[in-house]
Amino acid sequence: MTGKPRTKYANLGRCSLLGGLALIVSCPAAMAEDRGRRWTLEDIVSVPRVISMALSSDGAELAYLERTVDIAGNQTLLVLYRLDLASGVRTEVARAIAADQLEAIAGMRAWNVLLDLGDGQQLYQIDSGASARLVLASEAKVTVGQAEGNLFAVSSLAPHRVGILAYDWSPDRRWLWYAALKPGAADTRVQFDSEVTAQKHRRRAPVPAVVELRLRSSTGEDTLIATRPTSDRLAFYLAATVRWGEDGLRYFVETTSGTKSDESEAFDLKFTSLVSTSAGTLPGLPSVDYLKGPHGGQLASEGTGESLDLIETGPDGLKHRYGRYGFYVGDPRSAANWRSGDGRRMVLGVRTTTHPRYGLAVVSKAGVRTILTDKSLSRCDFRADLSWGICVEESLSQPPRFVRVEPGSGRITRVLALSARHEAIAPLKITTHQWKNRADHIATGFIVWPRDFEKGQRYPAILVTHGSDADERFADQDLQWDYPVQAWAERGYIVVLINDPSPRQNPDLMPGYAQWRSGKGPLSPAQVQDSAWIDVVHMLEDVVSQLVRDGLVDRRRVGIAGYSRGSQITNVAVTQSSLFRAASSGDGSFLEPSAWSQVMRSYTAIFGGPPAEPFLENYRRLSPSLRADHACAAVLQQMATPLAGAIDFHMSLRAARVPSQISLYPGETTATDETHLFHIPSNRLAAMRENIAWFDFWLRDEEQTDASSAGRAGHWIEMERDRRAPCPALPVNSSDGPP
What is the pLDDT of residues 636-660, one digit of tens each? Predict the structure, then answer.
């Protein structure tokens, strides 16, 4: 993907209005500079991602886990580093198949961490030695991952054996609470009803396994406290979210039946008896997102609009209001939260509302002060007294770097660049935007401009969507999946990274989203559909229409791409709108009738009931496979697993003589599957090449001469010849209204 040295192009202005109400703001998030080289696909695949970091208790060193790829070895790895902050010397400690929960040990220059170094995921300690030292092991007889004989779990890692799932030390380190994964009893009985329907989308039989919640004393006594099914998400993913007390602890499980529900149960346990006593049930999973404020209450962001209320609600229900701010707390993608030892001051990770990025808020009884720049502080750790900390600073145009952050002054100073490879790339021009659609709903996003942009020329455009993941993170897979955003810009595409209209900024959308999640509410299925899908399509249409009016985009060469939530929007967009001429939909099948038995609660809100009378018309109104004859776009589906709904959509498109291809990417062996976020580097590279070839073919009439199309270009030509009568011709590029 290398090319000729780029040429300078006209500056579009520091804060230019591109006209009309639909495009409210266009301020540069990053301006291209005449330095460095161009992007390659290997650059996109190899972007490092810090997933966990912890300062030593004396502040002299930083340990961190970096997700990286070994392209030659064709694997994704978790690498554990130690960084001496005085000298800047970085030392590699371990390379693991899986790693999690890196935590500093108080009073020592040492850390605990979960690593799989070949004997399954176990608990290790990192100190003055050159290698990790085993602290606690549990026989790793259960393999987690999408493979034959494995336990399925939400993960973007290769299949790996697990002994210790999670752990939590008491503050005095006298007690170690941990979750161990154990094989369950073999179940050879005949299964019935819900036991059978739960396996509809599984290619392999479920593996019996349980989670053991255990407590280990400082003298080595190890006690089994509870055994939970792996369907208990609090136990499986969070080791039951322990809260320590002076004479015992409280832990939380997801209802005693272990089914996925909206209820959890708390248990109290005394160190003297080691017996669990129920402390009552709670709606939802409050132990996961409880954020204790300086007044002892729960902190949350409330309200709607560009500014939200930061409120602390006490145990008595009284509310302390800190004011309205252009951010919200509690976003799991933000940099986490820290509390001073005396509880009087907090540093909170926040996400902003209008220019999506991550920053910090310093909260005390005296008020709130923000630490925000035009970049993101996406991962951090702070000293116990909150005097300073180390964060990962990044943006859409800046590779991740370590910086020192001082909450007292807000000062940020550079410490270390994580990737010299990515620092050598000349930044693309990227601008941040807010758009309005025909319903006056607001969406946020960014435009990535062609490297060699020339004013007055119209460009093909690709819209990339994934819920709310368009923000200031560097080539992040959460947003762009295996869509080569940067390579498209190098090839002359305008790439629009766009978020769904957020209910936080558009309060009239809130009831529809709430009903979709809960399955209950006063709205009709059509109103829920309009709120969560049709309105998003209108936003996409209106954004493109504005870019056409501004003379930037060729209306006849517009495509769309998205995975997961983005695949929903992509599939709905191409079957509701005649605007799009090419699409790439990633590993999704939601909204198809075949999924009814798996997501009945959501589908009841969206469609009213099962795909039969009297609800069938609601499916015809939205389900992509039932509207395939409305599609004008050539549709590529890239899959990690052969989901039934995706296959139905593909076959419906082919039956309607709409160009369609479905591509299934393999796992490491014939007995394994790729993960939802592809983790095999060769698959990521192949998927990006396929996307380049697909959009070049359908939007630019260019046939790739290399292996990008995997030898399928001839088949695409046949589909083009066989496609049904073309869709109505789009209007010429002029100042026309929405398509």
Answer: 999 999 999 999 999 999 999 999 9
